[in-house]
């Protein structure tokens, strides 16, 4: 309540432009500010560039932008691109340059950061559900999840994320509610509600991917029975093992990048935090930016179709630089076909059971 009384006094002058209680959250030393700037700036730029490339590769391909699976991936790339820009700029401005804004501007900034990360996790959940539907209902997948349904689902997800994220801007701030130990103006009860919401999303991702892995294992076992030992066991189980490794990487990245920050948020609800713990939280927050940088590699650049789109774009660039030539015409088809056929030879019978699931 002491912090609330100081805030009321500060907010009574010039619409909060003298909002000095923000200083209580600016606890980094000079060396730590330099470290934050050195880490955050290149991470933000690299993450933004990666996600921008993924967006361009999907949206520039008529075939990819019509497929629901790649609409979900493009939503993830858009959220991560915005997260990279918005989070990096505001994080450096707040912790390094100690920029102080009016109350509405600050709430708009922190709401935008919350929106981008919430939409990123929401896109991850929709991507997981898409993969589950593709394996669970292969004959009716295209009819079950059309482009129109995917766009409506994405729209609902973004609207819900925006409503949840901008609640503080709409008036849900601290005072008289207890203020968060980690975020200025944010009440503990709102932070608890957001943590429950994000936990629900993560639980959905883990639960869905668990079903994806189990369904893949069932398909691999069924495939092995139908082949009657004609194909070596290592080949029969190749896709099953590969999918298990992919999902293991997905869940490991989510845990490493999100758990430290979320755990400290939960801890802050139970007890006051020292400046040392707040400093640890500031650096743990950078791991969420790392997650936005890694997502394009896991979900997009490992896709043969997106790599084929990249080959086509590179071929177009070479044509513009060198002029039209035979090598510009031949490079792309050879590369893209070899990428897709390599997996197709091994998993041809799998593909017949799960059509249009190449994005897995």
UniProtKB/TrEMBL annotation:
| Family of this protein | Belongs to the G-protein coupled receptor 1 family.
Q: How does it sit in the membrane?
A: Multi-pass membrane protein
Membrane-crossing segments per the record: 34-58, 70-94, 106-129, 150-170, 190-209, 246-268, 280-301
The family database entries (SUPFAM superfamilies) matched by this protein are listed as: Family A G protein-coupled receptor-like (SSF81321)
Name the UniProt record assigns to this protein: Cannabinoid receptor 2
GO CC annotations, alphabetized: endoplasmic reticulum; neuron projection; plasma membrane
Recite the UniProt keywords alphabetically.
Cell membrane, Cell projection, G-protein coupled receptor, Glycoprotein, Membrane, Receptor, Transducer, Transmembrane, Transmembrane helix
Q: Record's PANTHER family?
A: G-PROTEIN COUPLED RECEPTOR
> InterPro entries from the xrefs?
Canbinoid_rcpt_2 (IPR001551), Cnbnoid_rcpt (IPR002230), GPCR_Rhodpsn (IPR000276), GPCR_Rhodpsn_7TM (IPR017452)
Give the GO molecular function terms.
Answer: cannabinoid receptor activity
- Organism from which the protein derives: Myotis lucifugus (Little brown bat)
Task: List where in the cell it is found.
Answer: Cell membrane; Cell projection, Neuron projection
Q: Name one Pfam family in it.
A: 7tm_1
Give start-end positions of Polar residues composition bias: 346-360
Q: Where is this region: Disordered?
A: 327-360
Q: Which residues form the G-protein coupled receptors family 1 profile domain?
A: 50-299
């Amino acid at each position: 309540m002491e912090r609330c009384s100081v805030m009321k006094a500060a907010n009574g002058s010039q619409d909060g432009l003298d909002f000095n209680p923000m200083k209580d959250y600016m606890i980094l030393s000079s060396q730590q500010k330099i470290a934050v700037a050195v880490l955050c700036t290149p991470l933000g730029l690299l993450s933004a560039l990666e996600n921008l490339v993924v967006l361009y590769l999907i949206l520039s391909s008529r075939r990819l932008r019509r497929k629901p699976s790649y609409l979900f991936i493009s939503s993830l790339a858009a959220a991560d691109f915005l997260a990279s820009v918005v989070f990096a700029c505001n994080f450096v401005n707040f912790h390094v340059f100690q920029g102080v804004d009016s109350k509405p501007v600050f709430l708009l900034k922190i709401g935008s950061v919350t929106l981008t990360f919430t939409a990123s996790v929401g896109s991850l959940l929709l991507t997981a559900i898409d993969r589950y539907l593709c394996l669970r209902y292969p004959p009716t997948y295209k009819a079950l999840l059309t482009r129109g349904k995917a766009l409506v689902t994405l729209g609902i997800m973004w609207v819900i994320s925006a409503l949840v994220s901008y609640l503080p801007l709409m008036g849900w701030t601290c005072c008289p509610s207890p203020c968060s130990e980690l975020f200025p103006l944010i009440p503990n009860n709102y932070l608890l509600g957001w943590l429950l919401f994000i936990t629900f999303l993560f639980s959905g991702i883990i639960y869905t991917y668990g079903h994806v892995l189990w369904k893949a294992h069932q398909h691999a076992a069924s495939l092995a029975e139908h082949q009657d030992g004609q194909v070596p066991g290592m080949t029969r189980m190749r896709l099953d093992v590969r999918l298990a490794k992919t999902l293991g990487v997905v869940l490991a990245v989510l845990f490493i990048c999100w758990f430290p920050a979320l755990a400290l948020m939960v801890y802050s609800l139970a007890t006051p935090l020292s400046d040392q713990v707040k400093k640890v939280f500031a650096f743990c927050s950078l791991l969420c930016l790392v997650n936005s940088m890694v997502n394009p590699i896991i979900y997009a650049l490992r896709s043969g179709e997106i790599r084929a789109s990249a080959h086509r774009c590179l071929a177009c660039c070479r044509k513009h630089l060198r002029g039209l030539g035979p090598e510009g015409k031949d490079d792309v088809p050879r590369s893209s076909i070899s990428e897709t056929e390599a997996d197709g030879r091994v998993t041809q019978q799998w593909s017949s059971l799960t059509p249009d699931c190449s994005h897995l």
